[in-house]
Each structure stands twice: as structure tokens, then as C-alpha cells.
């Protein structure tokens, strides 16, 4: 079979991708020419549009070396129950084909409720999301939003100004602060603001007991993010994955080295991949990760201010029976509380009202007294973090990287 004819038909199919008879004719020529791998891709494209196309099924079976089923004048009536999987002999084992060619041809059917899979080189899948929240959904945090706009979002939205001022988007952003203050939610909001895909990574997605597997998992993750650019890649608890190498065993040091390589984009460009990382302990992160071109921009995420606390309280009380709640007063009584602490305050107040309702047999609403009593019982979880952070800001702020933290601590009394 002439290669020139195949090349001409290939060009025609590229120009008319929905011409299924033309695609099938090309697949037949490829099978005859011994180029089964290429024929499989074209047959799969036909079957993605027409799952019952017998010609495509026979071509697929022939390309795989499976004896094709004998053609019939009329399609045979199905004899198997829908729940049973058809035997591959004499037909096509679709499950096996999807697994074998999943990195080339998309799945035939999308399953309800399943996230969009991102495939890595080692058949690893990572969940890619499309965030529906934006910075407008984040209560308070005016300074954090301003820093994000200057360092990240503004240059991205204005490519001409970015070029004029020589502003580079290379590198990433490190969010740090006490636990429960919304660092993960903020990262999702950045992805929503950009209209980008969102992939979240935790240490369990990377670490593996086998030598080299953790490094390969990390590489697969970055390859997946590059394949879905523009993409926000969120590295949660970066201090666990990128801990100081001087304090690690040799097996974990190689994982940190791999992370450095991926952030540099040595094997693949990181254009369109925006790396956000979060940690409660930035002082434990390896210094090499915070050099220019990597996680070189830092944003302190503090406990919510008065307006943000009121908004958080209102959110967690929205589906509960309440009466006469003064959100401003409760917000004033919960200074230094994290978002997670405020959710716990609402939960505790609901328990008070429910306990009385059970004891008296009469349902009563959650009252202001319940909220204030819960605020007295629940102590802010941020106190322990700020006690540690004060030592760092006082004695380990030699390069000025914790100036924002030091300025905040001057305004705050650590209990």
C-alpha cells in the first residue's frame, strides 16, 4: 500500500475530522499496511461517536490481532444481560482497551459524579477541578487580596503592562499562617479568579515506600498540571514535602531535590502552571524552595478580621434555627479566632440549644446567650501558633522575610 496515499488520506481526515467513512477507510489502509497502532486511534475516534459501528469494531479487533467476529446481515439481538460484561473472544474487550490506550484516546463514557481525571506518565490519576469561588467570596483579608493582586493576578491579567515593566510570572506563591484561616480556600479562589484548572496535592499523593516511586509521582503530577495549563497547582503542607534537607534522611532528600527540579521546569516548561503552596511552619521549609523562580513570593494569611468573622459566623448559622443574634457583638468577642474556631463556636451554641430542647421537650432557637457562652468555652486555636511565631519573628528574622508577621505581632497581645 502506497505511503503517499495514506499520507494524503491522513491530511484529509485532519481537515475533516468528523468524516467517519473517510476515517474508517484510512484505518483499513493502515491495518493492511501493518500500522495497527495508528489504525486503533482512528477506529477509537469513530467508536467514540458511534459506539455500535461494526466496521470500526472489526478494524479495532484486526489491528489488535483479535479474530474479528463474523459479519451478519442484520445486527444480532443482544443475548446477554446488560449487567454482564461481554466476553472478549470474538468481540472487543473495551475495558482492556480503555486501560491500554487511556493516555491517547479519552474514555468512551463519562461517569456521573466522577471528577475529571488527569493522567500522568505512570498511569497515575489526579483530580482536576474547576473552582467556582473567587476572591469576592473570601471575607475580609484586604491586605492578602492586595498582595495577591500585585504579585500574581494583576500581571497575569495585563500581559502588555507585564511585558513593559519586565514582570515575570515565573515562580510561585507561599501562603503561611496559623491553621484553619482559609489558606486552601484562598488558593481555590485564586484559581477561580483566573478561570484556571485546580489540582491539589498532599503528601499522601506523592510518598511511596518503593525507591524512586515518590519522585516519579511528583513528576507525574507536574506533567498533569502542564497538560491542563492554565492550571493552579496547590501544594498543601509544603513543609512536610519540602522539609529542610539537613534534617531529613537520604530517601526524603531526593524527593525535595525532585520538587526543586520540577519547580525549575528543567524537563518541561512551566508556562501556564501557577504554583501555590501553603504551610503552618514556613521556617521548616527548605531554603532552596524559597529562592527566586520557585516559591519566591510569600503572603501571610492571618485570622479573619471583624467583618470577616461576622460573615463566617453568618455562613455557619445560615441553616440553623436562630433568633436575635448580634453578629457584630459575637465577632467582637471572638478576636484572634480562626475560621475553623468560628465554625466550632456555632456548633457548640447549637449543642446548647439542642440540649435544652431535649430536656424540656420544647424546641428553642439558638440565642445570643448561646453564642457568647460558646465563645467563652471555645478558645482560639491560633494562640499556640503565634507563641511559636513570635520566637521566629524575634530571633530568626535575619533576612526580613517575616516582617509582616513581626508587624502584626506588635499589634497583638499573645495570650
Write the layout of secondary structure elements.
Blueprint: H1 3-15, H2 20-32, H3 36-49, H4 54-63, H5 94-100, E1 116-119, E2 125-130, H6 142-157, H7 159-164, E3 172-176, H8 183-194, E4 197-201, H9 213-227, E5 231-235, H10 238-241, H11 250-264, E6 273-279, E7 297-300, H12 306-316, H13 327-332, H14 339-360, H15 368-377, H16 382-395, H17 403-411
Parallel strand pairs: 3-6, 3-7, 4-5, 5-6
Antiparallel strand pairs: 1-2, 2-4
Q: What does this 3D model show about the protein?
A:
There is one protein chain. The chain is of the alpha/beta class. It folds into 4 domains: 1-68 and 90-109; 130-300, 3-Layer(aba) Sandwich (Rossmann fold); 306-377, Helicase, Ruva Protein, domain 3; 382-411, no CATH class. It is 47% helix and 9% strand. It has helices at 3-15, 20-32, 36-49, 54-63, 94-100, 142-157, 159-164, 183-194, 213-227, 238-241, 250-264, 306-316, 327-332, 339-360, 368-377, 382-395, 403-411; strands at 116-119, 125-130, 172-176, 197-201, 231-235, 273-279, 297-300. The protein has a 7-stranded mixed β-sheet with strand order 1-2-4-5-6-3-7. Helix 1 (3-15) runs antiparallel to helix 2 (20-32) and helix 14 crosses helix 15. The longest helix is centred in the C-terminal third of the chain and has 22 residues, at 339-360.
Amino acid at each position: 500500500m502506497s505511503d503517499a496515499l495514506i499520507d494524503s488520506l491522513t491530511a484529509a481526515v485532519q481537515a475533516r475530522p468528523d468524516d467517519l467513512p473517510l476515517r474508517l477507510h484510512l484505518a483499513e489502509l493502515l491495518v493492511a499496511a501493518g500500522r495497527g497502532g495508528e489504525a486503533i486511534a482512528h477506529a477509537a475516534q469513530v467508536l467514540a461517536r458511534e459506539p455500535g459501528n461494526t466496521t470500526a469494531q472489526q478494524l479495532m479487533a484486526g489491528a489488535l490481532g483479535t479474530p474479528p467476529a463474523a459479519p451478519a446481515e442484520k445486527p444480532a439481538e443482544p443475548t446477554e444481560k446488560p449487567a454482564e460484561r461481554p466476553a472478549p473472544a470474538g468481540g472487543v474487550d473495551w475495558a482492556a482497551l480503555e486501560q491500554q490506550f487511556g493516555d491517547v484516546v479519552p474514555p468512551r463514557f463519562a461517569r456521573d459524579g466522577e471528577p475529571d481525571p488527569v493522567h500522568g506518565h505512570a498511569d497515575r490519576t489526579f483530580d482536576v477541578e474547576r473552582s467556582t469561588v473567587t476572591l469576592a467570596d473570601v471575607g475580609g483579608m484586604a491586605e492578602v487580596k492586595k498582595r495577591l493582586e500585585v504579585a500574581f493576578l494583576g500581571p497575569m491579567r495585563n500581559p502588555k503592562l507585564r511585558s513593559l515593566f519586565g514582570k515575570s510570572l515565573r515562580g510561585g506563591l507561599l501562603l503561611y499562617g496559623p491553621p484553619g484561616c482559609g489558606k486552601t480556600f484562598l488558593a481555590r479562589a485564586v484559581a477561580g479568579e483566573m478561570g484556571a484548572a485546580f489540582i491539589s496535592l498532599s503528601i499522601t499523593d506523592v510518598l511511596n515506600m518503593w525507591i524512586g516511586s515518590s519522585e516519579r509521582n511528583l513528576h507525574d503530577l507536574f506533567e498533569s498540571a502542564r497538560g491542563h495549563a492554565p492550571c493552579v497547582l496547590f501544594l498543601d503542607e509544603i513543609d512536610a514535602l519540602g522539609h529542610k534537607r539537613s534534617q531529613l534522611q537520604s530517601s526524603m532528600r531526593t524527593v525535595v531535590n525532585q520538587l526543586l527540579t520540577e519547580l525549575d521546569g528543567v524537563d518541561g516548561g512551566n508556562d501556564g502552571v501557577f504554583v501555590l503552596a501553603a504551610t503552618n511552619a514556613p521556617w521548616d521549609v527548605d531554603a532552596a524552595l524559597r529562592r527566586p523562580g520557585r516559591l519566591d513570593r510569600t503572603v501571610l494569611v492571618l485570622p479573619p478580621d471583624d467583618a470577616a468573622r461576622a460573615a463566617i459566623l453568618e455562613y455557619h448559622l445560615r441553616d440553623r434555627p436562630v433568633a436575635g443574634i448580634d453578629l457584630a457583638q459575637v465577632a467582637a468577642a471572638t478576636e484572634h479566632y480562626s475560621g475553623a474556631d468560628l465554625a466550632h463556636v456555632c456548633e457548640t451554641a447549637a449543642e446548647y440549644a439542642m440540649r435544652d430542647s431535649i430536656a424540656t421537650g420544647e424546641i428553642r432557637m439558638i440565642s445570643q446567650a448561646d453564642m457568647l457562652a460558646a465563645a467563652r468555652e471555645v478558645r482560639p486555636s491560633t494562640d499556640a501558633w503565634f507563641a511559636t511565631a513570635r520566637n521566629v519573628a524575634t530571633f530568626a528574622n535575619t533576612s526580613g522575610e517575616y516582617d509582616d508577621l513581626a508587624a502584626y505581632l506588635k499589634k497583638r497581645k499573645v495570650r
